Structure formats: C-alpha cells, structure tokens
Amino acid sequence: MPGSLPRPGVPAGSTGATSRRREKPGGRKAGDGAKSDGGVKSGGSLHWRVAALIAAVACVLAAALGALTTVTASDQRLDLNRSIVLGRLEQALNTYAQTSAVTGDNVALDAPGLPPELARRVSDGRLATQLVNGPNGPVLWAAAGIGSRTLSVRSDYSLERNADDRFARTTIALAAGSATVISLVGLLLAKPLSARVRRVSATARTIADGRLDARIGRIRGSRELTELATSVDQMAAALQDRLRAEQRFAADVTHELRTPAAGLLAAAEILPDSHEADLVRDRAEALCGLIEDLLEVSRLDADVDTAHLEPHHLTEVLQRAIASTALPARLDVVDDTAVLTEPRRLERIVANLLANAHRHGHPPVTVTLQRGTVTVRDHGPGYPPGLLAEGPRPFRTGAPERGKGSGLGLTIALGHAHLIKARLTFTNAPDGGAQAVLTLPLDAEG
C-alpha cells in the first residue's frame, strides 16, 4: 500500500463511520463493529403459513363434504324406508277395507306405542310417518286414520341407524385422510415458493448491508416473484454504479487536492516564525493529513489492497504501535498467542484506536492482549448509541461529548481489520468508558 502506511502518528479521526465498503463484504462481517438486526421479525415462515392455510381449507372442505355426504345418505335411507313402511301400511289398509281384519307383521289398530303426535296428524284420514327413538332403539312408524281409530305399521330402524353411524365414521376417516394428504401436498407445494421468497429476502438484506454486488439472478416461479427479483437486481446494479461513480469522484477530487495542499504546506514552512505562521503550518498539516486519510479510505473502498498474513506474536507489534503515537497508554499482556496478521496494518489499527481514545475519551487508556484479542479502552463517556447501532461513518463523530474529529480514524481501522480478516467491534464497558475489541485469527500451528 502507498506511503500512508504506517501513519500512526497522525491523529486518526474519531467515532466516525465506516465507509460503505466496510459494510460490503457479506453483510457486516469481519471488520464491522455495527450490529446487524438480522432482518425484520415475522410471525412465522411463509412456507408454514401457506401450508397451514392449505391444510385449513382442506379440513373445512373435507368436513363440509363429509357432513353433506353423511346427511344425504341418511336422508336417502330414511326416505327409502318410509316408502317401504307406507307400502306396507297401504297394503294393510286394503286388507282391512276388504276383510275388516288386521294382518301383517307389526301391523296394529291403536297400537300402544304409537306416538301421540303421529296419531293427531293422521286423525283426518291422512297417511304419515315418524321416526322415534324408543327404549329398544329407533323405530319408524307409518299410520293412517280409520274413523276414530288408527291403523299403524311399526318397523325397527336399528339396522339402518347402525348403517348411518358406520357410514359417518367411514366418511370422517376418509375426510381426515384426504385433509392430511392435501396438507402434505400443500406443504410440498409451498416449500419451493417459500425458498424463492427467502432467496429474494436474503439477497435484499445482503444488499442493504452494503454488498451491492449481490444478485438474485434468474428465479423460477410466479410472474410476480420474477418481476420482484428483476427489480431488486436492477436496483442493486443502479446503486452499485452510483456508488462507484461517487467513489471515483471522491478519489479524483482528493488526489487533485493533494498537490496544492502539499504546496501550501511547503510554502508555510518557509514563512518567518510567528504566531500566525505557526497557525498556518498547523492547519496546512491538518489538511494534508485529512487528504491522506481520504486517499486511504478511497483505496480501501476500491478493494485494491491485499494483506499478506503471517504468524506473529503481538507484544512487540503493540509496543511499536503505542510508541509511534507518542500517547500515554498501558500495555497489559495476558496471553501472547501467535496470530495470523500483517504487522503494519495492525499497528495502523491500534494507533488509530489509541488516537481516538485520547481525542474523545479520558485517561487512563489501556491496551490489553489476551489470546489473539486486542482491547483498547479509555475511561471517557463511551461510544454514542448511533455508532454502537450502525457502526462508524466518515465525518460523523457522534455525540458532542465525544469531541470533534473527522470521523475517518475508525473507518480506516475497520478497513484494515477487514483486510487482515479480523473482527473489530465497539462497545461500552459496564463501568464506563469506550472499548474497541479487535479479534484476530489464531495461528493453527502456533
């Protein structure tokens, strides 16, 4: 990487913000301290919702069809038996009219068990039937009025009622089986749809996390899902093109500013010593430092740098980083386990974190090393909620109590952390103060 590394002596911004590329690789991963919410919580998977809806509809239809079939079959059986007993009653009436004798099985005049309601209905000479539940089971009666008397035919309906019950149980079993089969089919049909929706949703979340190169691609399914996937891909492509254009513009502008800023600094150096000259030199140095930081952010955004990771113990690396800042900090080494890293980038990260701690926090500032984890902590007001929730962003320093700064220091630290495959997170200590935790990959052979 060009000569800006290492530049730990330059105060490195503050609780600023990660550049957009910092949120790019795979959602917020190795170098990102922001917390991802993981998407919007929902009441349940679309897969199961669709399957449950199909199952509910299948159960309702099966119950309705089963009830309708059972009632229809029962009514048809009852109508058939009514026709039979009415035929027997008419035959008994004809015999009685010819011989004044009552003949036939279960044929009687003024039968003792005849339902009173049925007797009243046939008092005017009409024929009628009635199904009643007797002490020995259901009985179907047919009766006709003969003067002041009633001729009736009695038919046991137990067999038919048992047949109705068996048919009902069979229908319920078939309905339950059909509903189960339809539910399983619905579950199988809903699974591909749910998978496609999850694919679209996951890609959209990836894009929202900063990976604008993510694409859904071709998706099979309904026209609506296909159109949605195409729209999301087009949106991501447009955003990516616009971001690249903005990054190129920022890099070009910063590069063009580098030359006049260097000339301004050179001119300030030859000014006669005075308070005004010192002020001009100080501001010129700050401007040159800011331009160098912006160029470094542009390189990190452009993904043109690569890191060469090798096994290293970190005590000496951290000592050099602390010494390069000329800022007071205590180094506590608990366990110096070998890690895979690139020392100059690690020095840059730690130097930026130390500069940020001194600029926006309060002493004492400590650097703790424990099994591949470097923790930089101050005892100031802590990181603002916005940084903890969203991660650092350029030119945003957060809460006023954290002081002023360009906001590029943490952005650059995040960029280098990503390059060395480390994880940099920002938290506030329970007993006060901000702490940045850098977790490096351990050396498997160390």
Strand order of the largest sheet: 6-8-9-11-10
Number of distinct beta strands: 11
What is the overall silhouette?
Answer: rod-shaped
What is the structural class? alpha+beta
The end-to-end span amounts to 28 Å
Q: Which spans of ≥5 residues are poorly predicted at pLDDT below 50?
A: 1-43
3D architecture notes:
It is a single chain. The chain is an alpha+beta fold and 446 residues long. Helix content is 52%, strand content 14%. It is built from 9 helices and 11 strands. The protein has helices spanning 46-99, 116-121, 158-208, 223-269, 275-302, 315-325, 343-360, 385-390, 409-419, and strands at residues 107-109, 127-134, 137-146, 149-156, 310-312, 330-335, 339-341, 366-370, 373-377, 423-428, 434-439. A 5-stranded mixed β-sheet has the order 6-8-9-11-10, with helices on one face. A 4-stranded antiparallel β-sheet has the order 1-4-3-2. Helix 4 (223-269) packs antiparallel against helix 5 and helix 7 (343-360) packs antiparallel against helix 9 (409-419). The protein is rod-shaped and about 150 Å long. 30% of the residues are buried. Residues 1-43 have low confidence and may be disordered.
